[in-house]
């Protein structure tokens, strides 16, 4: 059967194949004594929903938190406190969505001492289907 359009027949069941991971990272040391420092962002080419967010840091001796925002508004119930060498999950607000052209921002807050190396946020997003 030839493909006639880009619509996905939702009656066929779950469309988990559409979940896309986005990785935003800071490839070196994160500066200390920062408040909501934007270290990475991405403009979204499609509308969708954020399914999960994880933060990872290779080395950490500072007190630090991570926030993920869409167009300047947090999508977390509270900032993520990363733990060195561990994928730390964030708790999302109810079904955070974004529009085509929205900016997903990766922000960090650090205290006045220590270091944080190779901070990474992995954000899993589900694009809206054409009829959503």
Number of domains: 1
Q: Give the CATH topology.
A: Jelly Rolls
* Average pLDDT figure: 86
What's the order of the H and E elements?
EEEEEEEEE
Low-confidence stretches: none
Helix content: under 10%
Strand content: over 45%
Individual helix count: 0
Question: Helix and strand layout, with pairings?
Answer:
Blueprint lengths: L19 E10 L7 E7 L4 E13 L3 E7 L2 E2 L13 E2 L7 E2 L4 E8 L5 E12 L5
How would you describe this protein?
This protein has 132 residues and is mainly beta. The chain has no helices and 9 strands. The protein has a single domain, classed as Jelly Rolls (Sandwich). It has strands spanning 20-29, 37-43, 48-60, 64-70, 73-74, 88-89, 97-98, 103-110, 116-127. The strands form 2 sheets. Strands 1, 3, 6, 7 and 9 form a 5-stranded antiparallel beta sheet that branches. A 4-stranded antiparallel beta sheet has the order 2-8-4-5, with no helix packed on it. The model has no long low-confidence stretch (mean pLDDT 86).
List keywords for this structure.
132 residues, mainly beta, Jelly Rolls, 5-stranded antiparallel β-sheet, 4-stranded antiparallel β-sheet, elongated
Brief characterization of the structure:
The chain has 132 residues and is mainly β.
